[in-house]
User: What shape does this take?
Amino acid sequence: MIDILIHNALVLTLEPGAPPLMPGYVAVQGSRIAAVGQAGPDALPAARESLDARGGLVLPGLVNTHCHAPMTWFRGLADDLPLQRWLHDFIFPLERDWLNPDRAYWGALLAAAELIRGGVTTVADGYFYESEVRRAFHHAGLRAVAAQGVVDFPAPGVPNPRDNLKVAGEFVESGKDFEGRITSTVFCHSLYTCGAETLKAAKSLTRTRGLPLFLHLSETRQEVEDIRRQTGLSPVAYLDRLGILDELTVAVHAVWLTQEEQDLLALRGVKVSHCPESNLKLAAGAAPIPDLLARGVTVGLGSDGAASNNNLDLWGEMSLAARLHKVWRHDPTVMSAPQVLALATREGARVLGLEGRTGTLAPGKEADLIVLDLRQPHLTPLFDPYSHLVYAARARDVRDVMVGGRWLLQNGELTTLDWPEIAGQIRAGSRDLAAFCRGLRRP
Amino acid sequence: MIDILIHNALVLTLEPGAPPLMPGYVAVQGSRIAAVGQAGPDALPAARESLDARGGLVLPGLVNTHCHAPMTWFRGLADDLPLQRWLHDFIFPLERDWLNPDRAYWGALLAAAELIRGGVTTVADGYFYESEVRRAFHHAGLRAVAAQGVVDFPAPGVPNPRDNLKVAGEFVESGKDFEGRITSTVFCHSLYTCGAETLKAAKSLTRTRGLPLFLHLSETRQEVEDIRRQTGLSPVAYLDRLGILDELTVAVHAVWLTQEEQDLLALRGVKVSHCPESNLKLAAGAAPIPDLLARGVTVGLGSDGAASNNNLDLWGEMSLAARLHKVWRHDPTVMSAPQVLALATREGARVLGLEGRTGTLAPGKEADLIVLDLRQPHLTPLFDPYSHLVYAARARDVRDVMVGGRWLLQNGELTTLDWPEIAGQIRAGSRDLAAFCRGLRRP
Assistant: This one.
């Protein structure tokens, strides 16, 4: 007798080469998948709880490989500005003088609500007050990689930058309490905010524990020029000289890369998080994803924070990733729908080192899955589920979400989060935030 | 006593320079807007029917300036292919041998269901069997500009191309029955499928009646080179020599334009329909929209058909239009959220010559409006409704849709269309279509 049976659906396991299963089922025992298969009503395993998912499409939950959860507070606060004005006139002052641990917690709960409703079951986050983010994700029931942000100047929760790695180390140590569903690690913001010693110390801290180290890499042309001027090296060559590049490094954005840098990332086994909606909105550029994939680099998709996107919706990222590179390369055959869907699931899990646990539907993996409602005009008719998922589906099509055998969304309703309470907290806080910004904007 | 009052909402009229109204109301008398304003519960006009839209955002319905409605049948049938293979191996054979009037009708009803659910109140369509499309839109209650497709080779419903303008003329004449809500006109497919005589005759037919003439213009680099080789002129100069360019011409796509061509389009008052999702998916290119806008050209947004998109969702087009040009120009300040929202509403209405009737909320205009549900994680907090509509909102956030004073969607439910019946027809037909395609793919 298994615990939960989801049946009578179209099931995509996203295991390489596996065909769609119709009528398909997924059997869940405890937190894990016990079986996946194709069977009619008479041949199904017995279960304590059963979901008839008729008209539904079951697939692995999505993996968001880059987020700054508390930045949901700043969604739509300041758009369509030059990057430096946006950072210096809004984001930095807000992070310095307005954000606090309690606000980081509620902002992360808001992010969790959006992520779950959009079918994300695993999220990699990097920000300040990350212990608050971790607490929020734990409460929400999400699988996560939470990474404490590190910079070499005073930061929220770290007034003295000399303490930045001490704080990060304590964050990692305290992460043992969350083991199983949340990995705790470090996010070095970037090469232009972290010096060589900080980068090396962060790598040492994470490498010895087998943890991924995240960093923003070559997001803008300006930052690449600055690093070259300061070090005489390309950003990737500089990181390599510092010994930072290995299979446990996740390079976020990776927009401005030479062929040699791409080769070096591939050689070292560095993983890449691709955030196309953010890259376009901030006019950063188009990352050379087809080239990286051709070199065998493992790539996942990320939303980035809600201040620079302005949503945490991986369906939009999939649609854009599939389209952007076609026009950029003048080639409609690059970034096919099945390939892009893999980036948002299986490959995203590999970016985070979680491929043994999540990213596909296979016996023994954690039961991280979502059910979409296919019976809608924009998903009709259905010839190719991969095409629909990438080119037509949207976050609200997600009806049910399960992480580790536990329902986080049922019939479109959040089961672990109190949405009215979160909305009330955010509404009240946002009035305070608006007042704070009116102060900022005064000459 | 007015007929319908929508109140207690955040109202964006999208009249130039008009501020958001909160708490705002829209009063509807018959098919038209009687009043728009800001007032609390005690100061509202009396009404026969009242909708308390608390937590909602009311704005003009969206205007989709380019669609091929029956192509919903081909959604996801063949993706990620080179353009010529996609056209010659799939689309052309299907249109020639599988499509028929009844299927065009049901495909257009499917399109109407998707359009309404996504907040589109006015759609410009161009296809074959357009009288069937018009019948479907009429049944659905949409405002529409229906344009009979014209090409110089045998087409669905027009086996002899010498009849193409006769059929189009009859279509236009029979359109008088639909006057008020549906404009009937002509869509010359393109310069590479319509010769000079056809283009001139179509322009003559439509110009004398004050109707817009649609045509695909300079979608791909290849087609521009072909026209240059054949005529010695750029596509725009060639059309100008034929006398086709005026305020009643709508150029769809307009991707590959020289500065001189852009100047000439502006000088002649030609309107442009921008279809970014289709342009990217087919790797056509990025249209020079910021340059056209700087020249004063009127631009609207279009979804194109579901075979090349694969959805009819203007929210995705807004998000992409706002982002694409930023990265293309290396400038995060181009295509601001308010400007893009205007393209999808007020400016789209101007593209279609319907600016006196729809596109903004103003007394005397037709009551074409939508209500979005703001009380959702991805639209929280709310600082700037323009930003949310362009960068965060999605089609499913649309809760209610009204066209000409009549509800087409209430609380997310279609009121004029029988969705189970449409879904059943499409499901049955798509099995036949899949069998037909298996025949096609045989070597």
